[in-house]
Amino acid sequence: MILTGAFIVGVASGALINFVIWTFRAHDRPQDVPESKDKAWFANDVPECTKCGTALKRRQTSGVIALVSGMHRCAKCGRPLFVPKLLIEVICGAVWLASVYILGATLSALTVAAYGTLLLGIAIADFRSWLIPHEFTWIGIILSLGLSLSRGITGLINAALGTLVGPAIFFVVAWLVAKLKRISVSEALGGGDYWLIAMIGGFVGWKMVPVAIVLSAVTGLVIFLPWVIRATLRHTESPKIPFGVFLALGGAATLLVGERLVSWYGHWALRQ
């Protein structure tokens, strides 16, 4: 019964992140994002059919609700609307189910499930639209601080410092890149990445923030390098992928295996 409830809550959380993801318009390049949208606090676009651009009802941003209500196709072009949205909701349901199955009906399970859901929403939204919605990062920061209270004042301080350390590191990196390339700091690193690393730091703690950044960079290198090599050999333009996607993957890896990696590296370094 508890596992069924966890799956249902996960599907419902997937429907909520779908509402935000599909409200933003898709963009192929960061240059295509209007400045007004880049600085917007919340999603305020009308969801559209990805094929013909027809405005959709809000309920059509959810795969489950669209299917139940019989509005799973675009009224104009007939394109099925529910497939990617339903997949996201099922994945979120699986994340919540796995969290409760492994950790039990505990705050730890809630933390892992909520964190995973938010990171999934952020990765998809950034990949699709080159935007990291504040709806995800701000809620994530508040959740991370609230859930950290279960570990007492020490846990709250650890989480609070985590929300500050990451943005501070990113600002230094962005400032150095801006100086080298002679561009503005805002051009060197998007504002959404600061909020994302703050959210990640709130969940994993300030000591694990550098680990999350390193894992994000390694993940990006592993995924992106083959495409760059292929584009170089074919003399074509290499594809562009938002950094927020890799940061979300690195943040997830940090929560799952970060402490074990640090422990392994510590033992390895002592033997050298």
Notes on the protein architecture:
The structure is a single chain. The chain has 272 residues and is mainly alpha-helical. The chain has 2 domains: 1-131, no CATH class; 148-272, no CATH class. It has helices at residues 2-21, 35-38, 63-69, 83-103, 107-129, 134-148, 152-181, 185-188, 191-204, 209-234, 243-271. The radius of gyration is 20 Å and the shape is globular. The mean pLDDT is 87.
Task: Give the overall average pLDDT.
Answer: 87
The secondary-structure class comes to mainly alpha
Task: Report the major sheet.
Answer: none
Fraction of residues in helices?
Answer: over 70%
Low-confidence stretches: none
Number of strands: 0
What number of domains? 2
Q: What is the chains' assembly state? A: single chain
Radius of gyration: 20 Å
Calculate the terminal CA-CA distance, rounded to whole Å.
51 Å
Determine the strand fraction and express it as a percent band: under 5%
Order of helices and strands: HHHHHHHHHHH
Shape: globular
DSSP helical segment count: 11
Name some characteristics of this structure:
2 domains; mainly alpha
Task: Describe the structure concisely for a colleague.
The chain is mainly alpha-helical and 272 residues long. The protein folds into two domains: 1-131, no CATH class; 148-272, no CATH class. It is built from eleven helices and no strands.
